[in-house]
């Protein structure tokens, strides 16, 4: 991956629904945010706290993550679609 | 549970009304937020404070908790419905 | 009381108007928030400050408190109505 | 006074216009907030700063204070009308 | 002056346009805030920072100051009109 | 200059378009803020940080600066038009 | 480059679409922000944290960066179009 996200951002490759983790994620309630699943392909160096300390990313490259569909910014890079989002927009890591 | 929530988030499995704690929770006033009851099935590692200190979760796996119905994000995982929410959206723990 | 509020929250049992402290509390101006009186039945462990220090609750179980009617979340528990609110929504303690 | 305000709040008894300090306070511009004058009858223990330090109240019981008419919450207690407001809503103390 | 402003507030006596500093202050653009000129007649003890330190007022009694017309609260005291405003609403001091 | 701006504010004298730095600054997109160029004629003593430390101004008197047209407050002083704005509204210094 | 951005700002020269990194960046979803690619031509000295510490810029002159199209302010300087934006508006660096 040649995209290096800044700060506490990460680059995610969305997972096709057919490939989703056991049973996938379905949105039962339309007024709620739609969570989707993706694979982390790049992470930033972490958020800088008010005291100047750099906080390491909790999410690692290769993690499967769940995030709100409407968070982040979509980019197309080398013909592939990615999403750049902040770690605070990641709801959970799917452990295998 | 294979969902590992990030930061101060937790994963909750809503409790069916029939199974609610003695007498359950009823919303007497429709203009108020609707609190619901659920069981905590996974917790994050805790919120990071401005000084870099990680604050342990007050809520534990197995706790019965009350939270506002409109907080958090619903996910379906392995065919089950869950809610991922922040600990600050948890109103109270129901002690048994 | 089996409801254990989190953080700086407390559980209050509203006082019937007939039982109110000497002369009770009347709302003279309809455009203002309506303060009501209640008895504290449970308190959280307190708010965590930015430096990680836990601030003890100023309000104690058994206190009569005045709070804005529109703050907090109503719950019914064991057939009784309660209100869960933050200590910052408590205006004053009625000393006996 | 049996009302003990929490944090940086104070309880004020509004002063009748006829009793106002020399010439009283008149609102010349209707688009501005309306300041009114009152006497402080109770004060809280003070605001807690982010570092856990408690900041003593600048306003004392017995002070005449000027505050914005629309700030605070009105209560009736023992048949008297009071206002509970934050110290940050007090504009000035009238020195005698 | 018998008005003692709290915190980082100050009391200002507006200057009549005829008495304004050389050429006065004219508002050339109606969509901008209107700055006006006044003389400081009383100052508070200063703002308390998050670490509990009290920050002395930069503005002194007797200073000519420029401030936005729409900031602050007007009061009439002893038959005179004054404005109570925060030091952060003072744009500049006019040096003589 | 007899105007002494407070805190992190500065006083700027707008530069006529004909006198602008090589080619000047043109606004190609009307939905964007309009940046303009000016000369700094006075600076404040700097912003006070939360820890009480005073942060020196990065901008100096005599600097050519670019700032958003809609920031700050216009004043007329000694028959001249000036703009008082915060250093955070200064986008860049034009180095000669 | 004669524009010296202040604080954590940087000056970017947008890259023509024909010259974009392999396959460029395409916006697949119109409700999302449009990210664009540019080359960094100048950087500020960095953001000052609340403790007075200056945080060095993560982005360097010469970096290819991706940023949201609607962030920043456009300027024309020496006949060229540039964008001045904050480092926090930079989504990622494109590594070569």
Structural class of chain A: mainly beta
Classified by CATH, the class of chain A is: Mainly Beta
Most extensive interface between two protein chains, with residue counts = A-B, 30 and 23 residues
Which strand order do you get reading across the main beta sheet of chain A? Answer: 7-8-2-3-6-9
Total number of helices of chain A: 0
- Work out the helicity level of chain A: under 10%
What is the second-level CATH architecture of chain A? Roll
Q: Rough shape of chain A? A: globular
Using only C-alpha atoms, the radius of gyration of chain A works out to 14 Å
Helix-strand pattern of chain A: EEEEEEEEE
GO molecular function (chains A, B, C, D, E, F, G): ATP binding; metal ion binding; protein folding chaperone; protein-folding chaperone binding; unfolded protein binding
Keywords (chains A, B, C, D, E, F, G): Chaperone, Cytoplasm
InterPro entries (chains A, B, C, D, E, F, G): Chaperonin_GroES (IPR020818), Chaperonin_GroES_sf (IPR037124), Chaprnonin_Cpn10_CS (IPR018369), GroES-like_sf (IPR011032)
Subcellular location (chains A, B, C, D, E, F, G): Cytoplasm
């Amino acid at each position: 991956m040649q995209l290096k996200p800044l700060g506490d951002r990460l680059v995610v490759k969305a997972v096709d629904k057919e490939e989703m983790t056991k049973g996938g994620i379905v949105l039962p309630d339309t007024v709620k945010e739609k969570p989707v699943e993706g694979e982390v392909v790049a992470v930033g160096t972490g958020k800088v706290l008010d005291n100047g300390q750099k906080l390491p990313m909790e999410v690692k490259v290769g993690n499967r993550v769940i995030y709100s569909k409407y968070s982040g910014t979509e980019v197309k890079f080398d013909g592939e679609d990615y999403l750049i989002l902040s770690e605070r927009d990641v709801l959970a890591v799917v452990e295998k």
